[in-house]
Amino acid sequence: MAFRFFILTLLLGSSVCYSQSQEAVASSNKPVIDTLINNKTGKEKLINKTIKDSIVTDSTGIKNLKDNELASRIDAKWQEELYSNNLFDTIYKTVTQLDFKEVDYPELPTDTLKARLEALNAKTPFNVEYNPSLESVIKSYLKHRRKLLQKLITLSAFYFPMFERELDNANIPLEIKYLAIVESALKPKAKSRVGATGLWQFMFSTGKMYGLDVSSYVDERSDPIKSTQAATKYLAKLYEIFGDWDLALAAYNSGPGNVTKAIRRSGGYKNYWNIRHNLPRETAGYLPAFLANMYIFEYAEEHGFIKAKPEFALAETDTVLVKSMITLDQVSEVTGTPIEQLQFLNPSYKLDIIPVIKGENYYLRLPRDVVGTFVNNEDKIYAFAKEEFAKREKPLPQFFNATDRVRYRVQSGDYLGKIARRYGVRVSQIKRWNGLRSNNLQIGQRLTIYPRKPYTPSVTSTTSVKKTTTAKPISGDVIIYTVKSGDSLWSISQKFSGVSVQNIKDWNGISGSKLKPGMKLKISKG
């Protein structure tokens, strides 16, 4: 977006959480923890959740176990909705290409629109009085963007409560929450052509100016709470300068300099609609898009939109202060929470690694039903993470140039959105590089990818030949453990005193971490 130096970012999950400190989390979950201590079965149920099915060959002879195909497709479509940039790209086009032509939409009579805008204008500091240009935008959205709007309304149920709290704390109009619709389509990792990032589309320098840390591991522009706090500070400063919320939003989009130039060229007018023709093209459509979204969201039910419950409600999540470096993959293994959910809840961790840095506090957001279990087992979980880091040939992901080519082999459970996130590219790019006409993939299919973010190459992504591991001799009393649904190597190791994840791998010749119900594992009790 043009002149995005002054544009902010916002997102969910990892930042300093307003809800509870780590100590408060432990306190508030004490009844849960007490229950778990006295009820091992309950504890195991929380720690051990279902591991996704994948095609495997194991020592029991079980082969080609597959996930339910229909359910897998549904999951893939949902994850694509959560993580793709399609919504962001679509919103950007609607703002830059508004033509304000009259739209035939008899479902919304002009008199009805005027009455509703008048009611809306009475309760907001923004100028939402009727004019033909605004009517054109509203009717165009309702006629041509219904599917897009329904997706945004559903996503907003998660993000808006977060925004409203921070806006209210800063005494900023709550309607500013609709700005994130125009800026990012509620995509925490949305990135513009010039590098503005996050829900509130901060440029690197502006983010730094307002306290948002950007490093190799963390990008707080994608943190919903921290970036919202930064956005409120910047918007408050713009309002202090211009004394008008419409102009403050215009300055947020294109920079204060472009707004003051438009005021001069318009002969000193200070009403947005009077200076709009002298603003950059994108900014000329910016406020109408903001007001149109405000109207549609406020009158969503009247226009037949459904306010559905999102995948997560903010109240169903909580945060834990991270005390030792850990990856989202490791958290997924010990809690049973799918990695896609953890990435959605913690979008500011660029490499899916939560670092521990002196003077900084980083938080992990989790579904509330596993927070108590995590806190109650912190020492064991961090010990497991440390052990996993120590075993890596390269402890941390390495950077690869954009020109480096990767040959990726599609595995069970893969879909284009998941693969695209892994390598920091877009689904459309993968399709173009490989001549794909649809999103359908076949297990074993080879894809050419030019990664744009750090990643750790794996054996399965570069070769179809699986690495074989020879089981090491086992001593002492040996028992045979049958893997149950929801088991992981970590949870099984916790059932036996003195047994580590690596022990189980060595005794059974396991190179990865995938288990299948019914597998037989040798465990030494000696």
Please give a structural write-up.
The protein is mainly α. 46% of the residues lie in helices and 6% in strands. α12 packs across α13. The termini are far apart.
Which SSEs are present, and which pair or pack?
Layout: H1 22-28, H2 30-38, H3 40-47, H4 69-83, H5 86-96, H6 110-122, H7 132-144, H8 146-169, H9 179-184, H10 204-209, H11 224-242, H12 245-254, H13 256-265, H14 272-275, H15 281-284, H16 286-298, E1 317-321, E2 326-327, H17 328-335, H18 339-345, E3 353-354, E4 363-367, H19 368-376, H20 378-391, E5 406-409, H21 416-423, H22 427-434, E6 446-449, H23 459-462, E7 478-482, H24 489-493, H25 501-508, E8 520-524
Antiparallel strand pairs: 1-4, 2-3, 5-6, 7-8
Helix pairs in contact: 2-3, 2-19, 4-21, 7-16, 8-11, 11-12, 12-13
Attribute tags:
526 residues, mainly alpha, two-stranded antiparallel sheet, 25 helices, 46% helix
For this structure, the quaternary state is: single chain
Computed CA radius of gyration, to the nearest angstrom: 26 Å
Q: Major sheet: order of its strands?
A: 1-4
Mind describing the biggest β-sheet? Answer: 2 strands, antiparallel
Unreliable sequence segments? 1-65, 81-85, 398-403, 455-468
The percent of residues in helical segments reads: 40-55%
Mean pLDDT: 76
Structural class: mainly alpha
- Spatial gap, N to C terminus: 64 Å
Strand content: 5-15%
Count the E strands.
8
How many H/I helical runs? 25
* Overall outline: elongated
